[in-house]
Write the structure tokens for this entry.
Amino acid sequence: MAQELTTPQTAPRGWWRDAVIYQVYVRSFADSNGDGIGDLRGIRERLPYVAQLGADAVWLTPFYASPQADGGYDVADYRAVDPLFGSLDDARELITTAHTLGLRVITDIVPNHTSDQHVWFRAALAERQGGPARERYHFRPGRGAGGQLPPNDWESVFGGSAWTRTADGDWYLHLFAPEQPDLNWDSPEVHEEFDSILRFWLDLGVDGFRIDVAHGMVKAEGLPDIGAREQARMIGSQVLPFFDQDGVHEIHRGWRRLLDSYDGERVGVAEAWAPSPERLALYVRPDELHQAFNFQFLNCPWDASAMHAVIDVSLAATGSVGAPTTWVLSNHDVARHVTRYGGDDYALGLRRARAAALLMLALPGSTYIYQGEELGLPEVTDLPDEARQDPSFFRSDGQEGLRDGCRVPLPWSGDQAPYGFGSGGSWLPQPDGFKGLTVEAQTGDPRSTLELYRAALALRRELPGLGDGPMSWLPAPDGVLVLGRPGVVCTLNTTGRAVEIGTPGRLLIASAPPAVSSATTTLSADSCAWWAI
Ligand code: NOJ
Ligand code: CA
């Protein structure tokens, strides 16, 4: 009994509650063998850069055996490394090196669909209609005379119908490219196989998984029609019969039990497009996943009241289930935020992006950084069509979402392409503008975006009031946000003009220098600063 009384009232703080996690887009980070494609050895060699930046963990996008129809999100063998990226030994060594440097490793797991080259799908195609190998996917007869119409009206996220007809007349479901057939999570075999795949990587030492399309594995009973076109535009604003079905939560509960059966707090982070912060929070209930990307924050325009509102609803929703919020501004699927905030005006976009980074790092919870945002990289908007690889480009019928422009290989050093990315070329052409943005060019320059990120991450580690914990809003003029954390105040000016406020405290860091006198402080246009109080 006495022991029970001394039990702490609060849950132990998990490392993930305020971790800064650096997303490595594997094929674009660093190329060790000169074939123009980033690889695991390249990453391992450059891990000290990530550790020195001040991140706590890396998330690696899929490097599994894959025909690369969707940048590796079409997995043919979940237990093998694609030779393009290296070997299983390279993966092992990468994990060991990361741990030595104090970095955790999160790998991507793709459970909604396999590649059409996966042994299961090949067996399904080789089998007769209605056979057991087809039970692992969604095969259906077509509608109309002769079954020549798809079984329902669902559209692929990449454009066109979500169904493709096989040679024998049956149709199969693919919410993404036809090379990515959707798995049927009503099949017990699918559950068992993924448990085994997760164990394989956990045994190899990974610290968790980023779960691709974590909202998509369960489809509504009977696969009902939606009755509307342009369904990709509805994702994230309403529950669809193929996204955010309640049944997915049972899968995540099972995975949480599996993760918890390992030592060292292994985590699951959901890539989930839910129609509201409240529905998103369901993915991070105490018995489900640890984190879920806050895409509402990512999608929020550069506007103080919109940001205020998103921050409030996000914190309230995750707070209601006892989880932290997981902030993110960019990833490999969206235009880089420098360009989202500034359009063609790079200087404007960069000012805002630097400010947004400081805001994000001051908010309570965990943060993801997408490789290259610490360099202030813009979206590359002028890629020649023949260089493009994103399947959404080929299927888009004018839909948005071309994703090659945020996947251009990183500039490390030198003054010409491939800017130290490797000794060969780079799989997507790097623009001339990368010259002044290399890691080498920015290192040691206190005005650079790289040094801003390094300094902010160092402060975030140093100051106990940042990371997980309480936050409050303080009075602020129009267009300005002032938020308080224990011992720290963060000011964000989203207006295009200088704004005078009182004296928030002692300046710690700023995305653009404020003018400080004994009586007043003038915040620069589009800027953010942290102050010690
Ligand atoms: C989300 C991934 O981030 C994206 O790159 C991929 O195309 C889809 N899921 C399908 O796997
Ligand atoms: Ca390579």
